[in-house]
Design a protein that fits this description.
By secondary structure, the chain is mostly helical. The protein has one domain. It is rod-shaped, with a radius of gyration of 67 Å. It starts with a helix and ends in a 6-residue tail after the last helix. It holds the Pfam family COG3_N. One of its GO terms (cellular component) is membrane.
Length: 186
């Protein structure tokens, strides 16, 4: 009460008003600080949420890229396996063609050798048969000569004589051949 006497009512009311103003100002400052802290926290939470979403999006993007690269690698491996299979088949076919070509080449060589051997045998046989053909010519000529009576008289024209000499030479050659090749006649 001693303080009441010293201060007038008007002063007390002003002091009360000042106290209430200060208290309300402090309350407003506290409320303002509380509101700004809440606003900061809310803003920080939204920034943090956006940052986490961006990080998750980057991770998903990396994983999507890795999955796409894996798909590309898998398809490349499948294509490579297909191409390798086709190359193996092509190599198998090439080996088959090579084998057939080699076999045909050997058969052709054998056929050429057989043909040459047969041609030589045919030529030898033709030469041997020529002796027999000449025998028929000689017999025909001797018959012709004896029919004309030229052998008996010993007179012949020069053309007939040269033909007869040729035939006799062939007979002599045939006899010489037969003497040299006794296995020719059975």
């Amino acid at each position: 009460m001693a303080t009441d006497l010293l201060l007038s009512e008007r002063q007390v009311s002003l002091l009360d008003e000042l106290t209430s103003s200060v208290n309300s100002g402090l309350q407003e400052v506290a409320d303002a600080e509380k509101g700004s802290f809440e606003a900061f926290h809310k803003h920080w939470q939204s920034v943090r949420h956006r940052h986490l979403q961006q990080e998750a999006s980057k991770r998903r993007g990396r994983w999507q890229w890795i999955c796409q690269v894996q798909e590309i690698c898998n398809s490349a491996c499948e294509e490579l396996d297909t191409v390798l299979g086709q190359l193996k088949e092509l190599d198998r076919q090439r080996c088959e063609v090579l084998r057939k070509t080699t076999a045909l080449h050997k058969e052709c060589e054998q056929m050429v050798q057989d043909q040459e051997r047969l041609a030589a045998e045919a030529e030898a046989l033709a030469e041997r048969l020529d002796y027999f053909d000449r025998v028929a010519d000689v017999a025909c000529m001797l018959d012709h000569q004896s029919a004309n009576g030229l052998l008996a008289t010993g007179t012949s024209t020069s053309s007939s004589g040269s033909d007869l000499a040729t035939v006799l030479d062939q007979i002599d050659g045939s006899l010489s051949f037969l003497e040299l090749h006794p296995d020719f006649c059975p």
